[in-house]
Amino acid sequence: MENESKPSVLKAVDLGVSYGNSQAVARLDFDIRKGEFVAILGPSGCGKSSMLNVISGLRAPSRGRVLVEGQELFTPNSKPPRLGYVFQSHRLLPWRTVRQNLEIALAASSVPRDTWNDRIDEILSILHIAQFKDAWPMRLSGGQRQRVSIARALLIDPAYILMDEPLSTLDEVTARSLREELTGICQRTEATVVFVTHSIREAVYLADRILILTRGPAKIFEDYKIPLDRPRDYDDARIGDVVADITRRVQAPWGLAVQKEEESV
Ligand SMILES: Nc1ncnc2c1ncn2[C@@H]1O[C@H](COP(=O)(O)OP(=O)(O)OP(=O)(O)O)[C@@H](O)[C@H]1O
What letter would DSSP give residue 45? Predict the structure, then answer.
C-alpha cells in the first residue's frame, strides 16, 4: 500500500534484448516505485539475467528504453545511477583480499576516501563476516564469499540494488539466513530492489511485487502483488498458499518448467 504513493523511479518501455538474431527478451514494459522490492520470476533461460543486465546498464537494449528517475540510460550525458549489483556468482578478484575487493568498489564510487574504513567495518559486521576482512576469497566458503559480494554492492549506499539469483548456489540454511539479512538491510536502506529468482517461495518471501515472466523470449505474464504484511516467516502457511496460487497460474506460460519449480519449492 505504502509504495503506491511513492514516485516511479525505474521504468522499462518496450524493452527488448537480442543476441544476434536470437531474441532473449521480447517487449517488456514495467514501472518500479522508489523503495519497492520487486522480484523477477521466470523459468530457467527465459531471459531474466539479460533483462537485469540491461536495467543495470551493463548491456545496451536491442530495442526500447530504460529510464532511471526519468533519465534514459545510454545517452552521452546521462548520469550513472548509484547502483549495486549482486551477481549469481561472487565475482571477487582472487588476488585481492576481502578488504581490497571492497576498496575497488569504493574507488569506482564517489564515497569519500576518509570514510572507507568505517564503511567496510560496518558492512562486514552487518553481514557477520568482519573476521574475514583480510582473508583471501579462496579461503572463504561459498556462503561467506556471497556475503562479501553482497557487502560490495551495499557499500556504496546504492539507491538501486539489482540481484541476480544471488542465493541459488548456496545451501538452504545459508540461503535462509542471507534472505533474512537481505530483508532487514533493504528495509533499513530504503533502496529500490530488483531481485531475479526462479524460486517462487523466495520471491513471495522477499518481494512486495513479482513480475512473472513467460518462457523465453521473456514477456511479462503477470504483475503480482504479494498480499502479505511484513515481517514474514519463510515457513508460514500463508506464504505456502501464495506459492501454490502462483504455481497454478504459471502452469501454462511456463509449460514443463513448472514441475521443476514445484520440486525446488
Ligand atoms: N551472451 C550471450 N550470447 C548469446 N546468447 C545468450 C547470451 N546470454 C544469454 N543468451 C541466451 O539468451 C537466453 C536468455 O538467457 P538469460 O541468461 O538471460 O536467461 P535466465 O532466465 O537468466 O536464465 P537462468 O535462470 O538459467 O540463469 C538464453 O537462451 C541464453 O542462451
Answer: T
State how far Cα 232 lies from the chain centre: 19
SS3 213: strand
pTM of the model: 0.91
In the block, which residue shows the cell 514474514?
232
143 lines ligand 1 (CB under 6 A): no
Burial annotation 13-52 (CB, 10 A radius, 16+ → b, else e): bebbbeeeeebbbbbbebebbbbbbbbbbbbeebbbbbbb
Any ligand 1 atom below 6 A from CB of 215:
no
Residue 54, ligand 1, Cβ within 6 A: no
* Mutation choice for ligand 1 from 15, 17, 48, CB with most ligand atoms inside 8 A: 48
Please state, as a whole number, how many other Cβ atoms lie within 10 Å of the Cβ of residue 181.
15
Which cell numbers in the block locate residue 47? 531471459
Q: Is the CB of 40 under 6 A from ligand 1?
A: no
pLDDT tens-digit readout, 162-180: 999 998 888 898 889 889 9
Q: Per-residue pLDDT tens for 95-151?
A: 999 999 999 999 999 899 999 999 999 999 989 999 999 999 999 999 999 999 999
| CB of 48 closer than 8 Å to CB of 196 | yes
Q: Is the CB of 61 under 6 A from ligand 1?
A: no
